Amino acid sequence: MKLVAKMMWLDVLLVSAMLLLTVGLTARYGIGLLESDMELNLRNVAQLLATSQPVIDALEGGSVPKELEDYLDTVVESDNNIDIISLADMRGIRLYHPVRAKVSGPFYGGDEARALRGEEYSSRAQGTLGFQKRYFYPVRDQKGRQLGFVHVSMLMSNLQTLRRQVLKVHLQTLAAVFLLGAAAAVFMAANIKKSLLGFEPDQIASIFLKRGEIMDSLEEGLLAIDDRGQVILHNEAAGRMLALGQRDLTGRDIDALFPQFKLKETLAGLKDHNRAVALNDQNIICDRLPVSSGSQVIGAMAILRDRSEVSRLAEQITGFSHVLDALRSNTHEFMNQLHVILGLLQGGEYEEAKRFITTIGQVQSATVSTVAKNINNRVLAALILGKINRCQELGIRMSVQPHSSIPRHSLFLSTQSLVTVVGNLVENAIEAINEKADPEAEDAISLLVHEDGQSLLVTLDDTGVGLGQDELARMSHDGYTTKGDGRGTGLGLIRALVRSSDGDFTIESEKGVGTSMILTFTRPRDRVRGQARGPEGPGPAEAGP
Fold first, then answer.
1. Rounded to 5°, angle at Cα 493 from 489 and 498
2. Which 3 state secondary structure label does DSSP give 296?
3. Would you say 400 and 371 are in contact if contact means Cβ atoms under 8 Å apart?
4. For residue 391, what is the domain's CATH number?
5. pLDDT for the residue numbered 450
C-alpha cells in the first residue's frame, strides 16, 4: 500500500475515532442540555400561568373567559417549544385546551394524580395529540387551597426534530473536520514522498537491503564519509582489510581512525587513483573519489583493493605468471643438470660427465627442436617448454602432438590470450593428476595447438582424477570450481576468453580415467579481420602479437 493511502487510512481511523467519540459525547451533552432547557421552559411557563390571577379566577369560577382563552392561544402559537396548555380543576376536568373539542372533557394521560395532590413535576405520557413531554404545576388561591393544575407540554415528535437538528450540526462538523484532516494527510504524505525522492517506504527499505547485500558481495572495500569527515558507510570487504572485526565505524572521524587515507582531502573535489597505502601489514591500493550532489561535494568515498591480490589476478589474466613459472622451471632444470655435471667432474668421472652432457643435449635438443619447429610463437613455445620441464619435475609425462602448428602471430588469439589459455589448461591438468589416489597410474598430459587459415584448435588430454556427470553439468556455470574458495579462476578466464572470441569449449571427462578439453576458434581477431591472407595464414606483418 502506498504512503498516501496509508496516511489516508490512518487519518480515517484516528480522526474518525476521535470525532465519533467527541461528537457522541457533545451530541449527548447537547441533547441533554436541550431537554433540560425544554423542561425548564415548560416549568417556567406552567409556574407563570399557575400563579397568574386570571387563571386562579378562572378555576375559582369554573370557566375560562374569552380574554384568557385568547391569551393562552397566543402563548401556544408564539412559543415554538410549547404545543399544548391545559387548565383542569380538582376533578380533572379540562377548562381550557387549544383544541376546543377537548374542553369539558376529562384530562387524558393518567399521569395527573400527583398534580391533584399538589405536586409539581415533569413526566412523559401519551396525550390526545400524541406522546408528550409534560410539566404539571398546581394552582392555589390566596389561602393556599388548591383549585386545580396547569399542564404545559411539548410533543415528543417536535423534541425529536430538535434532537435531529442538534445531531445534524455535529455531523456536519464531523464531516468538515474529517475532510480537513484528509486534505492535511494528503498534503503531508505528498511532502514526505517528495523528501523521499518519490520512493515509497517499502521501496526505500528494499533498496537499502539490496544495496547492503550488493556492497558486501564486492571484493573491493568501500569506505564513505560525509562532508564533515565522519564515516557513514563501509562494507564487509573494507572491514576485513581494515581489521575492524565487529566494530561499527559509523559516525567516527576518518582522520582519527585512518589518517593514511587522507580522505578528507577529497572533500575539496579532487580525485586520486591507485594510491598505495601501507596499513596493518597490508599493501592496499586506494582510489579516492568525491561524492557530489549537483555542484556541491557532500562526501567522499575510498575504494580499497588488496595489492597482492590485484597483482596475482593481473598475472593470471595476462599470462605473466605462467611465463614466469616456465622460466623458473627451465632455470631449475638447468641448475639440476649443472649440479650433476659438477659432481661428476669433481669426482674425476670425465667420460661419464661427457656422456651425460651428450645425452641431455640430445634430449633437450629433441624437445626444443620439436616445439620450436612447430610452435612459431616464441612466447608460447617458451611457455610450453617450461611446462614440460615442470611436469618432468613432478613425474608427469607431457607431450606435444607432432602435428601441432601455429604461426608467429595467430589469426584468432593474441599472444597474451594464447598464454592464458594454454597455461591454465596445463595447470588444471597438473592439479587433476596430483589429486589422483593411485600412485601407480600413468601420469600424462598431451597438448595439441593447431592453426590453419580457417580455425585454431587447442586440445589438452590428461590422465587425472576426471569428473562425474554432475560435476560436468555444474561446470557449465560461471564461477563453479572443484578447488575450493579463492581458487579455480583459470577455467573462468578460459570461458570468458572463449565467449569474447565466439569460440567453442567442450569438456569430455570420465571419473578415474581423465579429462579432455577442446577449444575451437573460427572468428578472426578484430585487428586482423578482413586483411588479406595467404594460403598459409597471416604473415608476420599482418597482425600484432
1. 150
2. strand
3. yes
4. 3.30.565.10
5. 93
